[in-house]
């Protein structure tokens, strides 16, 4: 058995680049920065803050959400999988890139323009969903008889 799963929480580095492929299927890509805080060791030496940049790719419904809601500076929670691809450039050199193909994106906090984003989105339904599902009422047989 193997697992290819990535979970990231970070800030968008630039507005998504949205393009349409194969019969108007949208795909969006954007960089996401994750930062590890710096700290001071017991011996007094300092370890500086470290920022990693991740290439994020979203398809179909998530690409439309990215186009409408995600901007530079937006805080995101992302779940997806790593995918490495290669191509040959104009100088006949093989190039490689590793991307996170996101299948769940959750907007955190407020958008930079002050608007409130939807709570979360995911590809299985391509709909906006609350971060926590609402609690369903208990069936009649499990409700208590207390008057208050």
Topology readout:
Layout (H helix, E strand, L loop, with lengths): L5 E7 L4 E5 L3 E12 L2 E2 L5 E2 L2 E10 H10 L5 E14 L5 E15 L11 E3 L5 E2 L19
Parallel strand pairs: 6-8
Antiparallel strand pairs: 1-3, 1-7, 2-3, 3-6, 4-5, 7-8, 8-9, 9-10
Low-confidence stretches: 118-148
Write the CATH architecture name: Beta Barrel
Task: Report the order of strands and helices.
Answer: EEEEEEHEEEE
Please tell me what the overall shape is.
globular
- Name the CATH superfamily assignment: Nucleic acid-binding proteins
| CATH class assignment | Mainly Beta
How would you sum up this structure in a few lines?
The protein has 1 helix and 10 strands. The chain is mainly beta and 148 residues long.
Structure commentary:
The protein has 148 residues and is mainly beta. The chain has a single domain, classed as OB fold (Dihydrolipoamide Acetyltransferase, E2P). Helix content is 7%, strand content 49%. It contains one helix and ten strands, in the order ββββββαββββ. A five-stranded mixed barrel has the order 1-3-6-8-7. The chain has a two-stranded antiparallel ribbon with strand order 4-5. Strand 9 and strand 10 form a beta hairpin. The longest helix is centred in the middle third of the chain and has 10 residues. It is globular, with a radius of gyration of 21 Å. The C terminus is likely disordered.
